[in-house]
Structure formats: C-alpha cells, structure tokens
UniProtKB/TrEMBL annotation:
Pfam families: PRAI. This is N-(5'-phosphoribosyl)anthranilate isomerase. It catalyses: N-(5-phospho-beta-D-ribosyl)anthranilate = 1-(2-carboxyphenylamino)-1-deoxy-D-ribulose 5-phosphate. Signal peptide: none annotated. It comes from Aureimonas ureilytica. One of its GO terms (biological process) is L-tryptophan biosynthetic process. Pathway: Amino-acid biosynthesis; L-tryptophan biosynthesis; L-tryptophan from chorismate: step 3/5.
Length: 231
C-alpha cells in the first residue's frame, strides 16, 4: 500500500508545521474564514508561509470570498493552491482561477449519491477536487467538523481516484480510508486536534504512525500474494 499525498489543514503555529513536515506531510493548509476556530489573518499566513517556504506546498482555504480578498491572498501569501470551500459554481471557480492565476482546488460536500454528480461539473475548471462530508445541521463551518461521510458512495466514481478525501480523517480511521477508498490524497484537520483549532502533536504522530503501519501491511500483503502466485 503506497502512502497517498497528505495535506494537513488548519495549521496555526510553526511548531505544528514542523511536526507535520518531519513526519512526511507534503502540503499544509491555512484557513482564511473568520467563523472558523482555525482562521488566520493575512499577517499570520504570511509569517507561516515564510516558515514553510521550500519545505511544503501551501494551500489557503477560503469560503465564498470576494475578489478583493482573493487578489490580496494571491499577492501577499502567494500560495501554491487556492482551495474553494464554499458554494462557488463552476463558472465562479473558472473566474477565480483567471483572476488569481493560481491553481484551484474545489471542495465538494458529500452526503448522498447525487452529490457526486458535481465532480464531473468541476473537473474542467478545477485543478484538483476535494471530497468532504456535508456540514452537520447547525454548523456554520463547511469543513473541519470532524464528521465523515459514507465512503461506499465513492464506488460510483469507478476507478476515478483523482481526488483528496476529507471529513473526519483521524488516527483511528486513516488506514481504513487508504485501504477502502484509495484516494489520490488525504486531507486531515479536526481529527488531529485536542480542541477546535488546536492541533495535538501526539495525534499528528499517531496519524502518521497509522499511515506507516498501513503501508507496511500493504507491502507485506502484496509480497505474500506474489509468493503464492509463483509458488
């Protein structure tokens, strides 16, 4: 089993960034959405962006942001990717990509089979797709709610695994997510926190330990299969 691309989102401190990168995380995410406990202002994002420069891809997450905000993010933060986690239409996604000149990742909320129809609509305009659980009733946050969706729904996508899986990914279920879904990448946030907006180094280490154990188990299974085949 090969380790998928790992994005850890909602990071707020240099220490948390260092922990993620030491364990092999390839992408980090900053949230710019005031209602979120993981929200960062521009100056904080600039400082953390500089800390991670040359060591990780940086994504800034926005929710239905206006053009002025998006332009400021592009100019001041210069992220590798802009993640759109709101109700943006395909036309709006294309408009944002043209406005900022940045690669765009579109988040799609999933709770029922029909939600996956949006994947085909956004593929032509988004550089990457992220599939997340639909927010619970009463929550103002479109993501980072610590809930998963029924991964069996993704069987409808067939062999298409070109997406990041998000929604309640944590040390206890990350191995199953890799084995069951086989996504291009995983995006974890609230499942690695001791309190909303507060990453826990112990949970981050357990998350990567579980990933490494799953990769070893997958390699062992593949080796045993080959031995049986040629015995």
């Amino acid at each position: 089993m090969t380790r998928p691309h790992i994005k850890i989102c909602g990071l707020k401190t240099e220490a948390d960034i260092d922990t993620v990168l030491e364990r092999g995380g390839k992408e980090i995410g900053f949230i710019h959405f005031a209602p979120s406990p993981r929200h960062l202002e521009m100056d904080a994002m600039m400082r953390l962006r500089a800390h991670a420069l040359g060591r990780a891809a940086v994504t800034v997450v926005t929710v239905d942001a206006d053009n002025e905000t998006l332009a400021r993010i592009a100019e001041r933060i210069r992220p590798d990717t802009l993640q759109l986690h709101g109700s943006e239409s395909p036309a709006r996604v294309a408009e944002i990509a043209a406005l900022t000149g940045l690669p765009v990742m579109k988040a799609i909320s999933v709770s029922m089979p029909q939600d996956l129809e949006a994947v085909a609509r956004f593929r032509p305009v988004a550089d990457r797709i992220l599939l997340d659980a639909k927010r619970p009733k009463g929550s103002v946050l479109p993501g980072g709610n610590g809930v998963s969706f029924d991964w069996s729904l993704l069987d409808a996508l067939g062999e298409d695994r070109q997406f990041l899986l998000s929604g309640g990914i944590n040390p206890s279920n990350v191995a199953e997510a890799v084995r069951r879904v086989r996504p291009q990448g995983l995006d974890a946030s609230s499942g690695l926190e001791s309190a909303p907006g507060r990453k826990d180094a112990g949970l981050i280490h357990r998350f990567f330990d579980a990933l490494d154990a799953a990769a070893l188990a997958g390699a062992s299974d593949a080796s045993s299969s080959l031995e049986r085949r040629f015995a």
